[in-house]
Design goal:
With 118 residues, the chain is an alpha+beta fold. The protein has four helices and three strands. The chain has a three-stranded mixed beta sheet with strand order 1-2-3.
Length: 118
């Protein structure tokens, strides 16, 4: 019986080590599964196609047409970055919503500044 006593703590310790290694560099509890509406599309768009789709959506709004907004697209990741300046938070939110509606599952990186006097 004395020879087996060391085996239980050893097995318990190994179990803890292997469970901790399962995260593969992620933080515990932060792993999320994207919902179908936000999951990236399985078909990839070319950068120019994604950029044109987002730009076309932004051009439908009169305030966004006047705004100085840059659209950078990474079709491989179905991701766009919006940057520039708008006059209000409402216009900024409108730009984000229109960009998200341009193509299913697009990820929007918002870097738009709000400057009321510009």
């Amino acid at each position: 019986m004395k020879k087996v006593r060391w085996l239980i703590p050893l097995l318990f310790g190994l179990n803890i080590v292997f469970v901790g290694c399962d995260e593969r560099g992620g933080q515990p509890g932060t792993r999320t599964t994207p919902s179908p509406s936000t999951a990236p599309s399985t078909s990839t768009l070319r950068d120019a196609d994604l950029q044109k789709a987002v730009r076309a959506k932004l051009e439908t709004d009169a305030q966004l047409k006047e705004a100085d907004i840059s659209v950078i697209a990474i079709g491989e990741r179905n991701e766009i970055t919006l940057s520039g300046t708008v006059r209000s938070h409402a216009v900024r939110e409108k730009a984000i919503e229109l960009a998200k509606s341009a193509t299913p599952g697009v990820l929007v990186n918002n870097q738009i500044d709000v400057k009321p006097g510009s």
